[in-house]
Amino acid sequence: MAKTFFEELNSENITGVAYKNINLKKTLISYFANIGNATIADLCKELNLSAPKVTSLITDLIQDGMVQDNGKIDSSGGRKPNLYGLIADSVLFIGVDVKKNHINIGLSDLHKNIIKISEKLPYRLDNNKESLENLCQLINEFIRDSPVPKEKILGIGINLSGRINRNSGYSYSFFYFEEEPLAKIIESKVGIRVFLENDSRAMAFGEFSSGIVKEEKDVLFLNLDYGIGLGILVDGQLYYGKSGYSGEFGHIPMFDNEILCHCGKKGCLETEASGWALTRMFKEKLKDGSSSSLTSEKKDIGDIGMDDIIFAANHDDVLAIELIEQIGGNIGRGIAVLINIFNPQLVILGGSLATTEEYIRLPIKSAINKYSLNLVNNDTQLKMSKLGENAGIIGACLLVRNKVLSLA
């Protein structure tokens, strides 16, 4: 009995003609996914293949439940051709966006539609086995409660902060307990192929693919959270760097201070311009006698977190607003360096701190004007993320979709 496309994708023993055919099928799927519906003639021209060969490939994909015949279309003369296209829910992909104190999980189809989403599930990201087990449990519960058969889910993309090698599946910042790649460890617990990605890069890809980016080809995405991450789009392609660790923007040594960064070094941008910095500075101000609406809600200053300060700022708390403006100026100083180096068309502000909107955007813009070269920044737009909290989910789903089906 012939193998289906799904079985061929997961087989390690496909060679010769079968290997060539599966790559041709991937090319067909890529065309449908990126361009849209097409006729046999369109596909023959695109793939430089004969009509019988394309017809045979289309027939196989119809039998596998991935492609459908959408009927005949009008033509200027002769026989009306049939139009073919993907069945959106024939296969699906899961995106898992891991935050410090919660996770977001989404299920996406071939047409980039989000079928199911679970936001802000309680979770604490700690570098221990209990946290890893809890992550796998939440993913399994999401799969169990999803409205589709598990066998239709071809891959899971998981976003983590820090240094991720997406090709090997290793995370060097979290859960690096064993010799086996983290992707393989999670895969063994959930029963579906797993791919890891840096959270900022996945958020950036979501915004590049389905968010605020339109025609721009050179874009920087800033993930302003507890730390500061950077996603880079150069000439329309995600930039990874040689080892896949590009975008460590928060660890530029920008300040001459004695504050120890989480990376182990001193003076990093994150020590004066991040959610961690905001939280530290806010608590220091309270201990020095400053007042805030949060002191009436939180009996213990130690319980105050970044999300509390953001909430306070968005509800007119003067101390929170002042400190967000201060770190915004520091962030803008760092972005000015990036603009001088990359000369991008667009800079996008995303992540938790971006939800303070003008409170952080205005000091960032002011610092950019102050520290970057006018000739360089004149053509750079500064915009807020369109996708917000969902950027990571969408990016993870699309990256794993591209990876599994070779659509990149």
Count of DSSP strands: 14
Low-confidence stretches: none
Question: Can you write the helix and strand succession as a string?
Answer: HHHHEEEEEHEEEHEHEEEHHHEHHEH
Q: Beta-strand level of the residues, as a percent range?
A: 15-25%
What is the spatial order of strands in the main beta sheet? 5-4-3-6-9
Tally of alpha and pi helices? 13
Note the overall shape: globular
Q: What value does the average pLDDT take?
A: 90
**What percent of the residues sit in helical stretches (DSSP H or I)?**
25-40%
Distance between the termini: 31 Å
Largest sheet: 5 strands, mixed
Structural class: alpha/beta
- Based on CA atoms alone, the radius of gyration comes out at 24 Å
